[in-house]
Amino acid sequence: MTVATAAALAVGMAGPGVAQASAGASAAPVSVIVQEFPGAGNAPERAVAALGGTVEEPLGIINGFSATVPADRLGVLRAAVGVRSVTEDAAVELLDAETEAVNSLPTSMYSINHEIIGASGMWDKGFTGRGVDVALIDSGVVPVDGLRGSGKVVHGPDLSFEAQLCDETGCDDSPVRDLDTYGHGTHMAGIIAGRDDATASPVTSGDTSNFKGVAPDARIVSVKVADAFGMTDVSQVIAAIDWVVQNRNRDGLNIGVLNLSFGTDGVQDYQLDPLTYAAEVAWHSGIVVVVAAGNGGYGTEKLNNPAYDPYVIAVGGVDGKGTHGVGDDIIPTWSSTGDGGRNPDLVAPGASVASLRSPGSYLDDSYPNARTGERFFRGSGTSQAAAVVSGAAALLIQQRPGITPDQVKALLVGTAKELPKADAVAQGHGLVDLKRARQAKTPAAVQTWPRATGVGSLDAARGSAHAELEGTLLEGEFDVRGTAWDAQSWSRGAAAGTTWSGDSAWNGQEWYVSSRDGELASLTWSGRTWAGRTWASLTWAGRTWAGRTWAGRTWAGDSWTGRTWAGVEWTGRTWAGRTWAGRTWAGVVWSGTDWS
Q: Is residue 352 classed as helix, strand or coil in its secondary structure?
């Protein structure tokens, strides 16, 4: 990416601000109640005016005001700075009705928590994930209801290509820094630990009016690595894992679970692979690492990398067929089965799961029929299944302080429920069952597999596809910064906890972006010291991500028919998903109802 291109991107990435959004508004005005966050000032009122609306009466009793707004601008207003909620007349009932309608779906989080895995039974015993942080290495998170409560989301470094914008004068934070412009990370965060603002404390199984993830009181530590098209490189993911390990107990964090809803088709021996080694370092540091098993096998029966590492918890997906009970449950054809030596450890719901949407993100725009109401979005894959298990692990860690990752794995696997009609290999030990797990004794478990060394090939960890940035192919033993990959030095540093320096730049080095007149054009990795950023210090401003083009970024040999995650094409080989060309996601043909 040249400096000139970066300057152009500064306009495109910011998207239309709220002040511009009123252009073209043609829908009839509707009466709404706008409720503000404390300290919002007059930002919500300015947003109403910018959207072509009119501010009417102040409503001090609810810290809000009444207004009229064009009906087609309500979604943007709901995302504006300082706005807690926007509701039409009698909207409290309307919002409750929407959530209750979603809760009635057989693949809703309500159904998953109450009827399938038994998470709600743990809530009633006081185990809601409180005090447990779940690290989510993904595409970021946006502050929608369910993920915007005080302390619900904390941001680690943004390691994505969207972290900063650079021009001739230097680099500044991007307006979409930390935010989920792709739509995947928000969906995962909702499954793991979503909790609507209106949810009463303590959380109980009796609340049917609010959205809740598996561990509603757990905290998400979001480390963004993927941009608006899911684009990232294995070296970025490895750096993110390094950061999680080395900051797991710093600055008030208590990271007990790491969710990796991605994978590559790299198949070098797990004992050599850098990505599996990074995951193992996290595991042996006391973090339960939950990994999506993969979708479709990617041309081989092996599980994804790093799911094929035997230490981590590899999760496959299950389709409950929309019925109560497990008698007819099956393993979808997209859920990888393994090779008989390394199979999924267990399965969890992964078909058409309804979770939180990121309005205006790539997936949201690409699959509008996957939306359910204003707030929810349905998706399928082992990504969703892994997120369910990450939430389950957080509940067990709160229930049993001091439990080790080996014991969490043994407890989940040992209490999983066998699915009588499902493929015996693909289901592993069966469906996660928190009622059984809650009542079982903590097993005395110690895994003794040969440990990984991480001294293998970085390029082999990428698998079969490589990202290309304006003619520069990310391949060979070089990381995304263009730095020669020193496997021996990195593996020693990862084990010793020295691969990060000062919570800021990765060893103080820089990203490699592209060459300009024979010189490297680069921007800093992370760029500033991490200080536990939360939504309180983050401005979203309701950006709809319009104009994100990443001009000039293509995929080697396949242009945009192969969007990537961790350097692996969408053409049949990626992170919870199949090809976009041909309209599939997770190996299931697009049906016009969700991105399954």
A: coil
**C-alpha 467: how far from chain center:** 21
Secondary structure, 3-state, 91-136: HHHHHHHHHHHHHCCCCEHHHHHHHHCCHHHHHHCCCCCCCCEEEE
Specify the CATH architecture of the domain 3-8+20-89.
Answer: 2-Layer Sandwich (3.30)
Q: What is the pLDDT of residues 445-486, one digit of tens each?
A: 999 999 999 999 999 999 876 766 666 778 899 888 788 999
In sequence order, the 6+-apart residues with CB closer than 8 A to the CB of 414 are 429, 440, 443
Q: Which CATH superfamily is 96-589 part of?
A: Peptidase S8/S53 domain (3.40.50.200)
Residues forming a β-bridge with 245: none
The answer to whether the CB of 183 falls within 8 A of the CB of 176 is: no
- Identify the H or E element spanning 153: strand 153-155
Which residues, 6 or more positions from 229, have their beta carbon under 8 angstroms from its beta carbon?
182, 362, 550, 560, 563, 564
Q: For residue 200, how many C-alpha atoms fall within 13 Å in the half-sphere facing its CB?
A: 6
What the block records as the tokens of 57 is 């009466």
Structure tokens of 543?
Answer: 């950006």
> Is 554 strand, coil or helix?
strand
523 versus 376: which is more confidently predicted?
376
H or E element in which residue 260 lies: strand 255-260
Q: How far apart are CA 286 and CA 491, in angstroms?
A: 18
What token pair was written down for 79? 């995302």
pLDDT digits (tens, 9 = 90+) for 65-93: 888 999 888 888 888 888 888 876 543 33
Element (H, E) at 31: strand 29-36
Give the span between the Cα atoms of 346 and 315, in whole angstroms.
6
In the structure encoding, which two tokens stand for residue 462, read together?
């990428």
- List of residues 6+ apart from 567 with CB closer than 8 A: 232, 233, 234, 264, 462, 463, 465, 466, 467, 474
Q: pLDDT tens digit string along 385-428? A: 999 999 999 999 999 999 999 999 999 999 999 999 998 999 99
Indicate if the alpha-carbon torsion angle 152, 156, 161, 167 is positive or negative: positive
What values do phi and psi take at 207, rounded to 5?
A: -80, 110
Which residue shows structure tokens 């608006």? 228
**pLDDT reading at 112 higher than 90:** yes
Per the DSSP assignment, residues forming a β-bridge with 137 are 223
* Residue ranges, CATH 3.40.50.200, the chain: 96-589
CB 349 within 8 A of CB 335: no
Please tell me the distance from the alpha carbon of residue 38 to that of residue 481, in angstroms, as a whole number: 41
**Statement: residue 442 has pLDDT above 90:** yes
* CA 341/CA 16 separation, integer angstroms: 51
Indicate where the chain has its CATH 3.30.70.80 domain(s): 3-8+20-89
What are the distances in angstroms from CA 238 to CA 35, 275, 438? 41, 6, 33
